[in-house]
Write a structure and sequence with these properties.
The protein is mainly α. It is built from 8 helices and no strands.
């Protein structure tokens, strides 16, 4: 049975910009330089400020689309081993978020876990979240961290630091070819 919160009813948003944001964060973290991280944060802040309200909403939808795509990949990978993606991914994700109290306030953790569970069960994260009202400023960093942590989880499973980014760029290329 189809749900009103299914991905076919959701805007994809600016997946390219969202992927750039997450990939930039992954590269910054792996570079290990505090200076590079500070510079990257400043550049990303300038970029997001330049988007304007419509662009920012497109970026939010794009990050939610990434979360959906990451969870779809993870669900398929776990199903190949007769495992449940929710059981194996969500506890690790929540534990990681709880270790980041400066970036992710404790009250944001259940929302982000719910967002990931929605995606893992085939629902659109952005439509699932919108049923509870508009995004808040306090949810922006946790949302980015959620996408980052999922990408990092995929990269560890694949033992390839760029695998999650390639999964998305390949999917975007295939979608473009089909148009």
């Amino acid at each position: 049975m189809s749900s009103a919160y299914g991905p076919q009813h959701a805007p994809a948003g600016d997946v390219g910009a969202a992927l750039m944001l997450i990939d930039s964060r992954l590269r910054s973290i792996h570079a290990g330089s505090a200076e590079a991280d500070a510079e990257q944060q400043e550049l990303m802040a300038q970029f997001t400020e330049s988007l304007g309200p419509d662009g920012a909403e497109d970026l939010l939808d794009g990050v939610c689309t990434l979360i959906y795509m990451f969870m779809t990949w993870l669900r398929k990978a776990h199903e190949d081993h007769d495992k449940d993606v929710i059981e194996y991914v969500v506890p690790t994700l929540v534990a990681s978020m709880r270790m980041m109290p400066k970036s992710i306030r404790p009250e944001a953790v259940p929302t982000m876990a719910g967002l990931v569970i929605a995606a893992g069960t085939g629902l659109s994260p952005s439509l699932w979240r919108k049923q509870y009202g508009d995004w808040t400023e306090a949810e922006m960093t946790p949302l980015e961290a959620t996408a980052f942590l999922l990408a990092e989880h995929i990269n560890r499973i694949a033992d390839d630091a760029d695998f999650a980014t390639r999964v998305i760029t390949d999917a975007l290329s295939r979608a473009e070819d089909e148009l």
